[in-house]
Amino acid sequence: MAKYIGTGLLLALQFFSVFPIRKNLPMERQHVTAMYIQLPVIGMLMGGVLATAALLLRDATDASSLLVGFLMTLLSIAMTGGLHLDGLADSADAYFSYQEKERRLEIMGDPRIGAFGAIALILTITGKIVIISETVLSVSVWMILLIPIISRIGLLLLFTLTSTSKNSGLAAFFRKKANLSMITAFALAWIVIVAAAIIILAGWQNGIALLVAFLIASFLYRLWCNKNFGGVTGDLFGAYVEGIELLLWIMILFFI
Fold first, then answer.
1. Helices 180-202, 141-161: crossing angle, 10 deg rounding
2. So which residues are the signal peptide here (predicted)?
3. Is 140 helix (H, G, I), strand (E, B) or coil?
């Protein structure tokens, strides 16, 4: 697997970030598996950019906490090209249509944004700005680094442990290609590493509370996806990343 790591990293950047990787890369089983294994590394890169930005803005400028929160939220959107927010909007439109599963999936595939998608975007973006502005001046930059890593670990578990609701689309294609057991093993290893880091940074009580909230929320989201959509889609993965990161910021605000 080691010889596929480089290609996996490039694929992960190509599909899950805005960083320009304009190459035709192989996507056989080993390459797709390596791509997903590298997702927490992508989270680490993005978290590193956010942590550095927070450090510079709060320590080297006179920017208000609200401005820092806005700029960090804008930066996080820019690094993914709005990919996850697009999934959130599509998921909100589909769920709040209150239609049958098949019709919800059709609505999710509609490129147009509806009222509920717009509301979900406004609430999520505004919520992030407000919560980050309330925490950014006091929170450790290491915690800022960890948030995108944790969300990508959760994404790995959701990907490997939940069937796709459609047989078509990128999510279904990747799930058929990937070695799910290997990805799960790497995700669990990442959880151990991140858990140790959080406990060191926040103390064992706060650290365990954060991890338990993350795991429970991920489990409940999986149940929700299965009940309302018959599985997961690429849009639901995007909605998960946005939702779990917002939850982590809320946990930091109130408990760390």
1. 150
2. none
3. coil
Tally of domains in the chain: 1
In contact, 146 and 209? CB cutoff 8 Å: no
Cα torsion through 196, 201, 204, 205, rounded to 10: -140
Question: Tokens 């098949």 — which residue?
Answer: 102
Show Cβ contacts of residue 70 under 8 Å, excluding neighbours closer than 6 positions: 129, 133
Secondary structure percentages of the chain, helix, strand, coil, to 5: 80, 0, 20
Distance of alpha carbon 219 from alpha carbon 85, whole angstroms? 21
Q: Residue 233 corresponds to which amino acid? A: T
Residue in the block written with tokens 């990747």: 174
Domain that holds residue 107: 2-255
Q: Is 232 helix (H, G, I), strand (E, B) or coil?
A: strand
Residue 120's Cα: distance from chain center in Å? 16
Tens digits of pLDDT across the chain (256 residues)? 667 888 889 999 999 998 878 888 888 899 999 999 999 999 999 999 999 999 999 888 888 999 999 999 999 999 999 999 999 999 999 999 989 989 999 999 888 999 999 999 999 999 999 999 999 988 889 999 999 999 999 999 999 999 999 888 888 899 999 999 999 999 999 999 999 999 998 888 888 889 999 999 999 999 999 999 999 999 999 999 999 999 999 999 988 7
Half-sphere exposure of residue 237, counting CA atoms within 13 Å on the CB side?
A: 28
Give the length of the chain. Answer: 256
